[in-house]
Write a structure and sequence with these properties.
Layout lengths: L9 H5 L16 H10 L13 H8 L16 H10 L14 H10 L14 H10 L14 H10 L14 H10 L14 H10 L2 H7 L5 H17 L1
Helix pairs in contact: 2-3, 3-4, 4-5, 5-6, 6-7, 7-8, 8-9, 9-11, 10-11
C-alpha cells in the first residue's frame, strides 16, 4: 500500500479527487493503477519519463507530447521503446530501425512509409522481413525472392507482379510453387506441368490451357487427372 502523505501529488491531486489510493495511483507498483492516474492527469506524465520503474516510464510515454518522445529514444527497456515505435512521428521512425528488440522493429516495419522499407529487407529476424514483404511496393520485391525464410518467400509470392513470378518457379518449397501456379500468367504454367508436387500440378490444372490439360489428363495423380479431364469435357461442351 502506498503512503499518500509522502506523495508529491497529495495536495494538488488527491484532495481534488484526481487520484485514489488502490485505484488510480502513480506511486503504486501496478500498471493498471498507474494507467488510471495518467489518464486522469496526463499533464504529469512528462515528470515520470525518467522514473526508475520501467512500467511507469512506459505508461508515461503514452501520454507525453510527440515532441518529447525523442527524449526516450535510448531508454534501456524495450517496452518503453515499443511505445515510442507506435507513437513517434513517421519521419522519426528511422531512429528505431536498428533497435535490438524485434517487436520494436516489427512496429517500425508496420508504420514506415512503404518506400523506406528497404532499410529492413536484410533484418536478421524473419518476422520483421515478413512484415516488410507484406508492405514493400510489389515492384521492388525482387530482393526478397531468395530470402532464406519460407514464410517471407510465401509473402513475396503472393504479392510479386505475375509477370515476375517465373523467378520463383523453382522455389524449393511446394507451398510457394502452388502460390506461383495460382497467380502466374496461364501461358507460363507449362513449366509446372511436371512439378514433383501433385498440389502444384493440381493448381496448374485449374488454370491450364487445352494443350496443357491434354498433358495433365495423363498425370500420375488421380486428382490432377480428374480435374484436367473435367475441364477438357467442359471446353468440348462449349466448342
Amino acid at each position: 500500500m502506498t503512503d499518500c502523505a509522502t506523495c508529491p501529488h497529495h495536495e494538488d491531486r488527491l484532495e481534488k479527487g484526481r487520484c485514489k489510493p488502490g485505484d488510480a495511483c502513480v506511486q503504486a507498483m501496478s500498471g493498471r493503477q498507474i494507467e488510471r492516474f495518467f489518464r486522469e492527469n496526463p499533464d504529469l506524465a512528462q515528470g515520470y519519463t525518467g522514473d526508475d520503474f520501467w512500467e511507469r516510464r512506459a505508461i508515461a510515454a503514452r501520454y507525453i507530447s510527440q515532441q518529447r518522445l525523442l527524449e526516450l529514444i535510448d531508454d534501456p527497456d524495450e517496452v518503453v521503446r515499443r511505445v515510442l515505435a507506435y507513437r513517434l512521428p513517421v519521419d522519426e521512425l528511422y531512429r528505431l530501425i536498428g533497435d535490438i528488440d524485434r517487436e520494436v522493429r516489427i512496429t517500425v516495419a508496420d508504420r514506415l512509409p512503404a518506400e523506406q522499407l528497404e532499410a529492413l529487407v536484410n533484418d536478421h529476424d524473419y518476422l520483421v522481413r515478413k512484415y516488410v514483404a507484406r508492405r514493400m511496393p510489389a515492384g521492388r520485391l525482387f530482393r526478397m525472392i531468395c530470402d532464406t525464410d519460407r514464410e517471407v518467400r510465401m509473402s513475396v509470392a503472393r504479392r510479386l507482379p505475375p509477370e515476375s513470378l517465373g523467378l520463383m518457379l523453382n522455389d524449393v518449397e511446394p507451398e510457394i510453387r502452388r502460390i506461383v501456379a495460382e497467380r502466374i500468367h496461364p501461358e507460363a504454367l507449362s513449366a509446372l506441368l511436371d512439378d514433383p508436387d501433385w498440389g502444384v500440378r493440381l493448381q496448374a490444372a485449374e488454370r491450364a490451357s487445352r494443350g496443357m490439360l491434354e498433358v495433365l489428363e495423363h498425370d500420375t495423380d488421380p486428382d490432377v487427372k480428374e480435374v484436367a479431364r473435367q475441364r477438357l469435357r467442359e471446353m468440348n461442351t462449349h466448342d
